[in-house]
Amino acid sequence: MASNSSDGDSSKSPKQPPLPSPLRFSKFYQSNMRILITGGAGFIGSHLVDRLMENEKNEVIVVDNYFTGSKDNLKKWTGHPRFELIRHDITEPLIIEVDQIYHLACPASPIFYKYNAVKTIKTNVIGTLNMLGLAKRVGARILLTSTSEVYGDPLEHPQNESYWGNVNPIGVRSCYDEGKRVAETLMFDYHRQHGLEIRVARIFNTYGPRMNIDDGRVVSNFIAQALRGEPLTVQSPGTQTRSFCYVSDLVDGLIRLMAGSDTGPINLGNPGEFTVLELAETVKELVNPDVEIKMVENTPDDPRQRKPDITKAKELLQWEPKFQLRDGLPLMEEDFRLRLGVVKNN
Ligand SMILES: NC(=O)c1ccc[n+]([C@@H]2O[C@H](COP(=O)([O-])OP(=O)(O)OC[C@H]3O[C@@H](n4cnc5c(N)ncnc54)[C@H](O)[C@@H]3O)[C@@H](O)[C@H]2O)c1
Ligand SMILES: O=c1ccn([C@@H]2O[C@H](COP(=O)(O)OP(=O)(O)O[C@H]3OC[C@@H](O)[C@H](O)[C@H]3O)[C@@H](O)[C@H]2O)c(=O)[nH]1
């Protein structure tokens, strides 16, 4: 009988983890899961890429038209054998073989989604149809990043997934909120009619490093303004509320949703609720106590309150956010300081 004495005494020399098979490094190595991320060069998408690339069984393919995203967000993966970046507009069909699709492509900041409203709705409708057609052809599971904006200016508070929303169908935000509502409808119709494996996340305001400096959304605006010593522009009345989720928490929720068995829709967000004025005061206190807070005019149909009920995510995904606003803001400040070249004095 073969002796195992060559293993030695395990209490003296702990056994090393096995080395990956040499095949892993071969030209012909096949990963176990090929994952497509539309909009992967954007803020949330690029963080999702980072997380999925940590698993060496994943091969990640990003398609993006760089409208609001940037190759810079993915530069650490350029040339990696398990990573591929394709310039592609999802309003055009895409032929590719994949196992899973995270469908994020869509401008998300109000100033960008309103900039070309017709293109935004095309991205939500034709783009989502194209991705569903692809999922159907290859039998891939597909996850849509929908939004808390499907609740519109909500009459129920906090919002849970059974609330149908209060949305203006002809307003300036409709290209985005109605667009996402149609995208959700398409997801569920493909599920019922063609048996597609779908997942729908309703994401609430998410912030973190790598947001565009001039993205236009409130957290990035306030941090950039505070670092530049400019007034923080609070759009009136300032009493409107939002609930801010740190990006790593959100990405964790998306991955759990994709891996789990529930189709959703599932709210992913941080239930900590703040008025916009409270957010401005917090940024002022943490980043630059010398800046002033200035009231400016708001835009039409701005939702007056927003807070997720995350009971479903807790129960079905065992997910809840870990970062409180005061933990996340300094991490974003650090990233913005680096990119803006503003050093911290103290
Ligand atoms: N960040 C949030 O607070 C938030 C909240 C709710 C929902 N979401 C959703 O999450 C997703 C990602 O949002 P984000 O904050 O990372 O925004 P983002 O603007 O940084 O990312 C969107 C990405 O999609 C790409 N894109 C846009 N139109 C495209 C098209 N036609 N074809 C290919 N690529 C296209 C952009 O270039 C960009 O890289 C969006 O679907 C958004 O609606 C985000
Ligand atoms: O400089 C600013 C920017 C924004 N705001 C206010 O801050 C609040 C949040 O505005 P943002 O532009 O960050 O984002 P919104 O909550 O309106 O929409 C977001 O909702 C969820 C996602 O789908 C999208 O990321 C985005 O549409 C609004 O009440 C807005 O009026 C300011 O007071 N000052």
UniProtKB/TrEMBL annotation:
Family: Belongs to the NAD(P)-dependent epimerase/dehydratase family. UDP-glucuronic acid decarboxylase subfamily.
Cofactors, names only: NAD(+)
Cellular localization per UniProt: Cytoplasm
Pathway, per record: Nucleotide-sugar biosynthesis; UDP-alpha-D-xylose biosynthesis; UDP-alpha-D-xylose from UDP-alpha-D-glucuronate: step 1/1
Molecular functions per Gene Ontology: NAD+ binding; UDP-glucuronate decarboxylase activity
GO cellular-component term (any): cytoplasm
UniProt keyword annotations, A-Z: Cytoplasm, Decarboxylase, Lyase, NAD
Assigned EC number: 4.1.1.35
Job of this protein: Catalyzes the NAD-dependent decarboxylation of UDP-glucuronic acid to UDP-xylose. Necessary for the biosynthesis of the core tetrasaccharide in glycosaminoglycan biosynthesis.
GO biological process, one term: UDP-D-xylose biosynthetic process
Disordered as annotated region, ranges: 1-22
Domain (NAD(P)-binding): residue spans on this chain: 36-330
Name the UniProt record assigns to this protein: UDP-glucuronate decarboxylase
Primary localisation category: cytoplasm
Residue ranges, compositional bias (Low complexity): 1-14
EC primary class: lyase
Pfam families referenced in this protein's UniProt entry, alphabetically: GDP_Man_Dehyd
Record's catalysed reaction(s): UDP-alpha-D-glucuronate + H(+) = UDP-alpha-D-xylose + CO2
